[in-house]
Amino acid sequence: MKSNESLARVRALSALVAATLVAACGGGGSDAPPPPPAPPPPSASVDITGRAVDGPLQGVTACYDINDNNACESTEPTSAATGTD
Fold it and tell me: pLDDT tens digits, residue range 10-20?
């Protein structure tokens, strides 16, 4: 009789372990939030404003030195030539 009781206990324990594992799986869903939307593409034009310390300068262009190498490069935003004012 003891072997039947042992077998019943093993089966009950196996069923309990299986039920615990299935409950721990959570159904396969994910609680992770969706990824954020992609940022919009950069605009083709940029507004640059400022003043020269030497007063009005005519026919001068300015650039925004993004990489801080003290040079205006074709990949950096550049202004139109300044007017008389």
Answer: 677 677 667 67
DSSP for 24-47, please give it: HHGGG---PPPPPPPPPPPPS---
Q: Tell me if 79 sits within 8 A of 62, measured CB to CB.
A: yes
C-alpha distances (whole Å) from 79 to each of 16, 31, 40, 51, 60 are: 73, 48, 23, 13, 9
What's the whole-model pTM score? 0.35
pLDDT tens, position by position, 27-38:
556 678 888 888
Helix (H/G/I), strand (E/B), else coil: 78: strand
Which H or E run includes 10?
helix 2-25
